[in-house]
Amino acid sequence: xxxxxxxxxxxxxxxxxxxxxxxxxxxxxxxxxxxxxxxxxxxxxxxxxxxxxxxxxxxxxxxxxxxxxxxxxxxxxxxxxxxxxxxxxxxxxxxxxxxxxxxxxxxxxxxxxxxxxxxxxxxxxxxxxxxxxxxxxxxxxxxxxxxxxxxxxxxxxxxxxxxxxxxxxxxxxxxxxxxxxxxxxxxxxxxxxxxxxxxxxxxxxxxxxxxxxxxxxxxxxxxxxxxxxxxxxxxxxxxxxxxxxxxxxxxxxxxxxxxxxxxxxxxxxxxxxxxxxxxxxxxxxxxxxxxxxxxxxxxxxxxxxxxx
Amino acid sequence: xxxxxxxxxxxxxxxxxxxxxxxxxxxxxxxxxxxxxxxxxxxxxxxxxxxxxxxxxxxxxxxxxxxxxxxxxxxxxxxxxxxxxxxxxxxxxxxxxxxxxxxxxxxxxxxxxxxxxxxxxxxxxxxxxxxxxxxxxxxxxxxxxxxxxxxxxxxxxxxxxxxxxxxxxxxxxxxxxxxxxxxxxxxxxxxxxxxxxxxxxxxxxxxxxxxxxxxxxxxxxxxxxxxxxxxxxxxxxxxxxxxxx
Lengths: 308, 245
Known about the structure:
- The complex is a heterodimer.
- Chain A has helices at 2-31, 38-54, 60-82, 93-96, 105-128, 154-176, 178-188, 190-195, 200-226, 233-247, 255-296; strands at 134-135, 145-147, 150-152, 228-229.
- By secondary structure, chain A is mostly helical.
- Chain A has a two-stranded antiparallel ribbon. A two-stranded antiparallel ribbon of chain A has the order 2-3.
- In chain A, helix 1 (2-31) packs across helix 10 (233-247) and helix 3 (60-82) crosses helix 9.
- The longest helix of chain A has 42 residues, at 255-296.
- Chain A is globular.
- The relative contact order of chain A is 0.21.
- In chain B, strand 4 (55-60) and strand 5 (63-64) form a beta hairpin.
- Chain B is built from ten helices and ten strands.
- Chain B has helices at 40-47, 70-76, 93-100, 107-120, 122-126, 137-149, 167-182, 194-200, 218-223, 225-244; strands spanning 2-11, 14-24, 29-33, 55-60, 63-64, 78-81, 155-159, 186-191, 203-208, 211-216.
- Chain B has a six-stranded mixed β-sheet, with helices on both faces.
- Chain B is globular, with a radius of gyration of 18 Å.
- By secondary structure, chain B is an alpha/beta fold.
């Protein structure tokens, strides 16, 4: 019975993981570059939220949209600073005849500079609110539902439903809308998108900012259950998000749900068997396995583009 | 219709185009010939706004095209069918066509145009919901052409539509080029397949090492001894090299 309860707890953990991974997988799908400042941007939004909540006493329903907006703006800043060059230079004929993939200097620069921005944004947060624990609008449930002998936290369940709803809504929007088509086309083949008359720089910016906005939603949802935000939050978001997104197949929107569920369940069992360190080991182990498995199947080595 | 004057384009220190001047008339098929490495694709990418020239001017219907973004150039009525097709591999055939019409807002007319392209290319109709990456080379070439036509271009730019395709498919593609010309579409075509190009084009230019070295009608081309030696003699060789590459 312990096993069942742990599995259920782990599965419910998938809600936060999927929410966090969704923005990362979308951002990667758009530009094929991992944004290391992903968690830090959301953390900045969350710290601003905490500041508005504590210092100015703003109500939760105003604070949460502000967090999402601030995170999206932080994303715009990161894109402008680190990922801007991806626009035009992609279209030289030498690259045109290749599929646009593989590492080049610009990708390394984007990765390294986004790491620098991560540190910068984290420092900004700590300067804004130097304490380790900072209050955040709290929506945690005070009681637990019981299913026979199993306990179920309704707030966790709500988070899972939110994650599923958001992933499905994003998938549908990507598949059905005109802008969704343009985003997928840009992610799929930037040069072909240029030639089809798509405004590639604007679309790349939109996709990136959208991804960061989603990370703001994820941060709100996760922190509303915790009721507080710490300086470790940015790191937590990047690591869990990256693990869920990579396991689910980077760039694959619905895959995030699967990756998050797998991660949650394996982590819960690892924690019970081996303690908190075992939990971390499980996260890294799964991430490593996912990467190794992906590297073995040549067709899907870091698949390009977005798959809705 | 299209006027190019003294155009130069470089990758770093390597000049791909040195001094290119040529023009394309409305209602005609203009063909640019040239061996591998002559700068043909560079010229097409410059026309499409992907590459920026270092010198010279490009005007289309009297309007300067330099400095415009690729999207603005599509708006002006130019559409490039790129070398090696460059379809959206992870999008379906229908989505590829819709992406080609992205700049247009008239939904009913777009749906109508998709039908028209599917009538023109029946094989695309059979594969309408298939991912473009799973199509054969010939089908991808047709899709790239149909996608470019979806923007309703006044001048269609085609970069080596025959490359890497079976002779039967090449004949099919050139049949469609003839048909488009008959419908009044102006076409600027880059080709290495001189025999096929002779059947469709009204005016020829020859590009060698970044310079235009010949301009004339098909009759001039057949008479010009220089071209026979410089280009046609080397055709089989260069095409073999392209096939190996």
